[in-house]
Amino acid sequence: MVLVNCAVLLVFVITVAAFLIWAERKVAARIQDRLGPTRVGGRFGWLQSVADAIKVLTKEDIIPTQADPILFRTAPYLAFVAAFSWYIALPFSRNLVPARLEVAALFLLAVGSLEIYAILLGGYASGSKWSLIGGMREAVQVISYEIPLALCLAVPVILSGTMDLVAIGEHQRGGIWSWFMFRNPFSFLAFWVYVTAATASLNRAPFDLPEAESELVSGYMTEYSGFRWGAFMLSEYIAMFAISLLGAIVFLGAWYGPIPLTQPFGFGSDSANGFDDLLGALTVGMKAMLGVIVMIWVRWSLPRLRIDHVMTVCLKYCMPLAAAAFVGTLLWQTVFS
Amino acid sequence: MTPLRRLLEEESWEPVELRTEEIFINMGPQHPSTHGVLRLVLRARGEVVTEVVPYIGYLHRCAEKIGENVAAQQWIPYTDRMDYLAAMNMNLGWALTVEKLLGLEVPERGRHLRVILVELDRIASHLVAVGTYALDLGSFTPFMYCFREREKILNLFEWASGARLTYSFIAIGGARADLPSGWVEACHQFLDELGPALAEIHDLLTTNAIFVHRTAGVGVLAPSTAIAYGCTGPVLRGSGVAWDLRRVGEPIYSRMYQDYEFQIAAPDATGRYPDAAKLPSPPKKAVVGDCWHRYFVRMYEMEQSAKIVRQALDKYTASSGPVGQPIKHTHKLPRGEAYLETECPKGQMGFFVVGNDSPIPHRVRARSSSFCNLSVLSELCRGALIADIPAILGSLDIVLGEVDR
Amino acid sequence: MEIAAIFARLREKFGEGIIGLQTENVDPWIEVSPQILPEACKFLKDEPDLAFEMLNCITAVDYLPETGGRTDVQKGRIELIYHLTSLRFVRRLVLKTVIPRWQDNETGRLPQVPTVSHIWPTANWHEREIFDLMGVYFIGHPDLRRILCPEDWIGHPLRKDYQMPLEYHGIPLR
Q1: Which listed site, A118, A323, B51, C46, has its alpha carbon 20 to 30 Å from B23?
Q2: How far is B390 from chain A (nearest CA, A)?
Q3: Could you say which DSSP state residue A92 is in?
Q4: What is the pTM of this model?
Q5: Would you call C27 and B372 a contact, using CB atoms and an 8 Å cutoff?
Q6: CB atoms B139 and A301 under 8 Å
Q7: B52-404, what's its fold?
Q8: Does residue B230 belong to the interface with chain C, where contact is any CB pair within 8 Å?
Q9: β-bridge mates for residue B145, sequence order
């Protein structure tokens, strides 16, 4: 049963990633006054990702002679595993959760930092200086942004008094006013810091320094080709969706819509049925998708930061703001409840 | 790099002292932001670059040697391939140089036609410069917007000359043909569309906080250094030297522009531009001579060029007569030497010709602006971050076809 | 200041080192002997009323013996042409210096000229290019390497008697 669950989850996650890759191309194209893919699959190029996958899989797998073969081969799998592990603890709805953990928030933070190892290993083992610099940048950047990210995640944990994501989601039942993002000014602040820190820890533009194509050729991915490169690419999109999903769950009301339309009919109450869960999953999925679209939008609008700016943004803005949000929420909770 | 296996096989682990090492990084000849086949060797301490050594010559096509073996008129297509982003300007430079040697005069209508073409090509070249500069800084969308506008210029050129990149349209003695009917109206329409497009780029780049942080105060080039290294064009003007050959060039060239109204795109000592009330004002961080000003000079120059093209279109329509007859391939060049520099988008492009009572020149020489502009790179990059190298290189706006010739 | 006045200033300072003035050409030029070239250049750059701050271009022109000319009909010559600009006075000047095709007329020994790269840094790359393509050795140049051709290229391609090699590292060239 576990295996079946895993397989279903894997297929789902890869489908989502394929969709996101297509969506990124389409959205980017529209932002840039282009059409993007139009041919594959008849209309809108909706099969473009499949075509890409076939191309990537049939490419030659090149391992540079300078590379450390074992580590070089391992890194992409590690990246994929790290990104995929998020979904183990991420609930889609009250009952649609692969593994309900008591400490899901903590687990996600721990798993989320696994990806650094993949990128560091890839950068180190490639035997290329561009890759090495990319890996170094990743280490510096992601480790710094883990702290504000964790502090921001602590805010909904304080508000709900639990680390269980399902319980956190349930706490936001009701309309838009009961979402954690709008509970108090500090959690509102925490949400925006979370957006920044999440973008940075995902290496998405404008924080895409580890792969900065105009400076470092392709950073840690420079020497990768074919399937291994595809694994890195896929894990990026998987992680993107995961972190948006997490944000939607802890800040944006999880599986509850902005207006409690269905609640008078008994949906969302304790009398669980399949339709209720499906509707919830759809809601949270759409919220997460919106987050991803915003990330795509930002990526295609802004230039890249420089490494010192990245550290400035983290240490001078994100960290104090996250700490303020954390302490503020604590005080707010003490005073008002 | 020590493979893991060897590390594991080592029996004893000795404590090693942690230290940083200088690394040499080979940037190019195949690198996304070297704008062609340029090779830079960086000596870096972590992210800080202590020395940059450029290696050029990967695109050397012996243009000067070829020029000694073909008639002057036949060398026009080779000039196309120097700065291929502004081939009209290259054609004009060479044509004027030979005309100077021959003492040839181009009719008035032909002069206005040439002004239209080279100024449009200047806009096209600057659009590529600004677009690829955005790309160097990691912003993809302005690149597309710039290319969308450039495409319209290329369409106009294609209509007039039949080619989209290497036109060979301006010839010694005039132009290959007159403009087709309807062209002038189409050009007016393009100029109307250019203004909003430039405003869009101003929104996306000029005032963007990240863009300003990446460019303002980076790669500051002092005017004296710029002059000493022979930097010209937007690179020199970005350092605050108001030197534009369209105003101060040799008579045969500057006469083409004498009736035109336009401003020289150069900031004054406080970083202000003439007549720039409608344009965004320079950010506080910007220093005259930095990457931001070099970028802004190009943006400013596009507006000025559009202004010139509008005037030239009117003058062209008002004038009548021929646009000039290209000389024959067998036309003999007199004994003598002539050198002429023209203001090309990348800087001052100079051509030198030695005539020898034969249609084939004894010697031709191309003084490339990108070549001189590039030579200042190692001076500018000392102590910069790795991320600044593309920012500085992009702001110099070199074309390797012109550097290597 | 007209070129005749500049010529007079230079003559006054350097005497016979300034060989002549040619005004019949489209671009008039002043001919300078290679020995005093750097001093003359420094003078032209530093004198406040001359102020040729910018060196635009250095060109080398090769004349084979049979093409004839003014200096040495028998042995041919290489002319180095320096184009200068004064931004302050909006003025242009052409300097010319004539050197033999081979040092001491010994085929294979590159002719020598003192460098001006310490006066105008832009000369650095231009002199490298001339060394590469024309085979002129610039004395005192800080980094005289080939710049456009590969480092192991043989010969100087812009010389009039240059023969293209048959192959380069196994790549047939002709």
Answers
A1: A118
A2: 6
A3: S
A4: 0.88
A5: no
A6: yes
A7: Cytochrome-c3 Hydrogenase; chain B (1.10.645)
A8: yes
A9: none
Residue spans of the domains in chain B: they are 52-404
Residues of chain C with pLDDT under 70: 1, 66-75
DSSP for C46-79 reads HSTTT---EEEEEEEEEE-GGG--SS-TTT-EEE
Question: Which residue is it, tokens 């180190």?
Answer: A124
* Residue B209 one-letter amino acid: A
**Beta carbons of C81 and B248 less than 8 Å apart:** no
Q: Answer whether B65 sits within 8 Å of C27, measured CB to CB.
A: no
Q: Establish whether chain A is in contact with chain C, requiring a minimum of 3 CB pairs below 8 angstroms.
A: no
Burial grade of B310 (CB within 10 A; 0-12, 13-18, 19 or more): middle
Question: What single-letter amino acid sits at A96?
Answer: L
Tens of pLDDT, residue by residue over A91-121, are 888 777 888 888 888 888 888 888 888 888 8
Q: Tally the C-alpha atoms within 13 A of residue B285's C-alpha that lie toward its C-beta.
A: 16
Contact (CB<8Å) B386/A68 = no
Hey, CA dihedral for C126, B267, B204, B208, is it positive or negative?
A: positive
Neighbours of chain A (3+ CB pairs under 8 A): B
Task: Please name which of B343, B11, B389 lies closest in space to residue B214, comparing C-alpha atoms.
Answer: B389
- The encoded tokens of residue C163 equal 């023969």
Count of C-beta atoms within a 10 Å radius of residue A215: 30
* Residue spans of alpha helices (H) in chain A: 2-31, 48-57, 69-89, 104-112, 114-125, 129-160, 165-171, 185-201, 226-250, 274-299, 307-312, 319-336
Looking at chain B, which residue has its C-alpha nearest residue C132?
Answer: B57
* Cα angle B226-B231-B237, degrees, rounded to a multiple of 5: 75
Enumerate the residues of chain C whose CB falls inside 8 A of the CB of residue B97: none
What domains appear along chain C, each with residue ranges and CATH number? 3-172 (3.30.460.80)
ipTM of this predicted structure: 0.86
Instruction: Give the pLDDT confidence of A45-56 residue by residue, as tens digits.
Output: 888 888 888 998
Residue C108: DSSP 8-state:
T
What one-character-per-residue DSSP string does B179-209 give? PPTTHHHHHHHHHHHHHHHHHHHIIIIIT-H
